[in-house]
Structure formats: structure tokens, C-alpha cells
Design goal:
Elements: E1 4-10, E2 35-40, H1 45-54, E3 59-60, E4 63-69, E5 74-80, E6 85-89, H2 96-99, E7 104-107, H3 118-130, E8 135-137, E9 145-148, E10 157-163, E11 166-173, E12 178-184, E13 189-191, H4 194-203
């Protein structure tokens, strides 16, 4: 494998819509349901995403473009940001249409649906729509949490790291133990303290 070069995130977020498959019925509650992570067969992320959208479910599996070195040239390829996973909104009490979708192995974790944190999904979507270079990053279980208060990533939350001479925002999806990162400007960063989460919980 060649070295990883600059990366650009591509996105195709699903929206609730009419069922495109003959004989299927769209779940009207899907658009307001929590997001779940689906474990899919290798290299089936786009196939599963398309099939779920055909059934009327909001679904997405973000990809990023990256340049890889080959023996005689440099090629640009698309790679899933979360290999083997697709995110989807659906009613967990009506999950049979999800489980019968071709390419899906199971709902994470092990067919016992547990929603992905809304803040994590929102932040991943914000990164994907920003147009900034994004890349996979090792999952971090702990670290200083931050919120961006300006620029195209405003509102995204995650962990601030310093890598060489740049600061990066790392957004984690705890359920999958995966993370992604993007370079951020210091002026747009503000710290998040435990009291912020306590205050937010009281507002729910």
C-alpha cells in the first residue's frame, strides 16, 4: 500500500422519500427515529446505502477521496470513512425491513439496536458537508473535548489534538470505536467542560 496523501470527504446523505422498491412500504416514522449503525458485508457500503434509500430510510455512509502511490503512478480512490458500516434512521421496533436488506450483517451491537449519539452523528455530518480535508483517525476514549464556534465546522464537537504544527478536531463514534479528524483553526475552538453536559442534560 502506498502512503496516504491529502483526503477529501464525499457525502450523500439520505433523506426520507418514497419507496422505490416494488411492493415495499415506507416506515413513516423513520425520519424522526434515532440513528443506528449497521454492520455490512465488505465493500457493500454503497450498495446497502442505496437499498435503504430505496426503502425510504434516511441512510449514509460517508466516503473520502485519497491519493495513493502505486509503482508507476499516483491514483485517486474513494474509501469508506467507516469501513463496513452504514448509518440509518429507523424505528427499532420495526427493524425487519432493515435486517432483510441485502448486504447487511447485523445492527450494532449484535442485533440489539443501540442508537448512535445524536451529537456524534451531527458532528460527522457537519464535517462531511464542510468541504474540508477529512481522514480516519484512531479512536480516542478520553481527551479534552472542544466545540467549534466559527467557520464551516461551527457547532461540531470532539477532541482537540496537536499533530505536528496543526491542531485537529477528532470526532468519535463511541458505538463503533472509530473516529475521524479534520484540521481546525485555533481561533474557532472553545473548551467544553463537564458542567456543559450537566446543563444540557437538564434541558432534555
Amino acid at each position: 500500500m502506498g502512503g496516504l496523501q491529502n483526503t477529501w470527504l464525499t457525502h450523500n446523505f439520505g433523506q426520507p422519500g418514497l419507496c422505490a422498491e416494488s411492493g415495499c412500504e415506507r416506515d413513516a416514522s423513520a425520519g424522526s427515529s434515532p440513528w443506528y449503525a449497521l454492520y455490512v458485508r465488505s465493500r457493500h457500503e454503497k450498495v446497502v446505502e442505496s437499498a435503504l434509500k430505496g426503502k425510504g430510510y434516511p441512510a449514509f455512509s460517508p466516503f473520502y477521496r485519497t491519493k495513493r502511490k502505486r509503482v508507476d503512478r499516483i491514483v485517486e480512490i474513494e474509501i469508506p470513512l467507516f469501513p463496513g458500516y452504514v448509518f440509518c434512521r429507523f424505528n427499532a421496533n420495526k427493524r425487519l425491513p432493515i435486517l432483510t436488506t441485502r448486504g447487511i450483517v447485523e445492527i450494532v451491537p449484535a442485533n440489539k439496536p443501540h442508537p448512535v449519539d445524536d451529537t456524534e452523528i451531527s458532528s460527522i455530518r457537519t464535517l462531511a458537508l464542510s468541504g474540508l480535508p477529512v481522514q480516519p483517525w484512531p479512536f480516542l476514549a478520553s481527551g479534552q473535548r472542544i466545540r467549534l464556534n466559527a467557520g464551516p465546522l461551527m457547532g461540531a464537537e470532539g477532541i482537540l489534538l496537536r499533530v505536528k504544527d496543526a491542531h485537529q478536531l477528532v470526532v468519535s463514534v463511541s458505538l463503533l470505536q472509530r473516529a475521524v479528524s479534520v484540521v481546525v483553526e485555533n481561533e474557532a475552538v472553545e473548551p467544553i467542560f463537564r458542567d456543559d453536559y450537566a446543563a444540557r442534560a437538564l434541558q432534555v
